[in-house]
Amino acid sequence: MEQYPNSYYVASLNKDKESFPSLNDELSCDLCVIGGGFTGLSTAIEAAKKGLNVILLEQNLIAWGASGRNGGQIWPDVAWGIDIIEKNYGINFAKQIWDISLNAVSLIDQRIEEFNIDCDKKNGGITAATSASKMKEYEKEMKYKFKTYGYDKLDILDKSEVKNEIGSSLYYGGVLDYGAGHLHPLKYAIGLMHVAQSLGVKMYENSSVEKINEDRNNVEVMLTSGKVKAKNIAICCNAYLEELNMNFKNRVMPCETYIVCTEHLNSSLQEHVLPNDYCVSDTNFDLNYYRLSASKRMIFGGAVGYSLKNVESLKKRTKRQLDKIFPQLSNLKIDYIWGGLIALTMNRVPDIGMESEKIFYAQGFSGHGVALTGMAGKILAESIVNGKTTELESFEKIKHRKFPGGRLFRMPLLVTISAMQRMADIFNV
């Protein structure tokens, strides 16, 4: 049986998470959700609110994967960038996706308020420029976003202002987004779990799906020692979706990222390091992302790998980046370090759609899943109940290419590209 990683998030839960049984029976339902992370929980909640009989299956523990391990940052937009979507699909389509991303952020606040979820939510995030050229480029992009999309929650920060807000002299400026924010992701996921439970969703942990069979009337979800017959299913496995359906092979790239959490900052450090409690992401290709916890620990992540074998090097790289940005924190003890998988698509836009009339799916949130997964779940549930929504149709219009080379060559190719981008970051190209 898998256990949660030894993370700060697990250690700081208000109380132990309750357990759910494995499925060892044959059941039937309106909707079977596969995956117990943000996407699966959101889908289950929205479907149950609409009156569906819902069963949720998780192969490990609820929020065991990325939903319970991530950096906890909330950002409007998709990882690809709304400007790239506009260039490829036009302004009207880009505005549709932009509105969806804003609604995704709002949905988090709505759920926290409606269901009284205690998850240490804070508002505000800074994108910090690692070179003068990137600052100029990003400033131009933000001004365009304000003009074209009417987004008025942005302040441009110069070098001294970003130093005051972050407590680091490494950056050339930045953009403060008041619509961004951060939270304790595992607390939020457990909160959603309780909501789903209160709505009658039947949840099963340590219940691994082996096969999916579809006929004219139902979909059969076959487990190691059980079976669920459902009118519809929603596959919400993110980095693990291709294990259930070969049609999704090579459409996402699982990559590993690591986070360190320091001991508590003393009062003097708290005055100068992120004094306004904003989260930060920088403009590097393998970006650094960090924030303070509710208890004033530094939570810092960023090192990305694709081999799933270089754990120690990723840990060391993460600590080196922390010390580089915050030399004043270099003597702080690292109390926790953990890692996990995120799922990248080629274009960094979530892959959301229908595999058939009865099979719905969502994957590939590319590091922007805290907000977008919730909206993805809502979109899937509404499409299952009422027919395909305009939001689902929008995501289905976005073309998703497979990673080249299959399993043998896609990894070395991405490693090479990533290494080139890191060199560009080092030399401020």
Your description of this structure?
The chain is an alpha/beta fold and 429 residues long. The protein has 2 domains: 176 residues, FAD/NAD(P)-binding domain (3-Layer(bba) Sandwich), CATH 3.50.50; 152 residues, 2-Layer Sandwich (D-Amino Acid Oxidase, Chain A, domain 2). Helices cover 37% and strands 25% of the residues. The strands form 2 sheets. Strands 3, 4, 5, 6, 11, 12, 13, 14 and 15 form a 9-stranded mixed β-sheet that branches. Strands 1, 2, 7, 8, 9, 10, 16 and 17 form an 8-stranded mixed β-sheet that branches. A hairpin with a 4-residue loop joins strand 8 and strand 9. The longest helix is centred in the first third of the chain and has 25 residues. It is globular and about 65 Å long. The chain starts with 7 loop residues before the first helix and ends with a helix.
Contiguous runs where pLDDT drops below 50 for at least 5 residues:
415-427
User: Which series of helices and strands comes N to C?
Assistant: HEHEEHHEHEHEHEEEEEHEEEHEEEHHH
Distance between the termini: 46 Å
Number of domain units: 2
Number of helices: 12
Largest β-sheet summary = 9 strands, mixed
Q: What is the 3D form?
A: globular
Question: So what's the CATH class of the largest domain?
Answer: Alpha Beta
**Strand residues, percent:** 15-25%
| CATH architectural arrangement of the largest domain | 3-Layer(bba) Sandwich
> Can you tell me the CATH topology of the largest domain?
FAD/NAD(P)-binding domain
Helix content percent band: 25-40%
In total, the number of strands is 17
pLDDT averaged over residues: 87
CATH superfamily of the largest domain: FAD/NAD(P)-binding domain
Rounded radius of gyration (Å): 21 Å
Structural class: alpha/beta
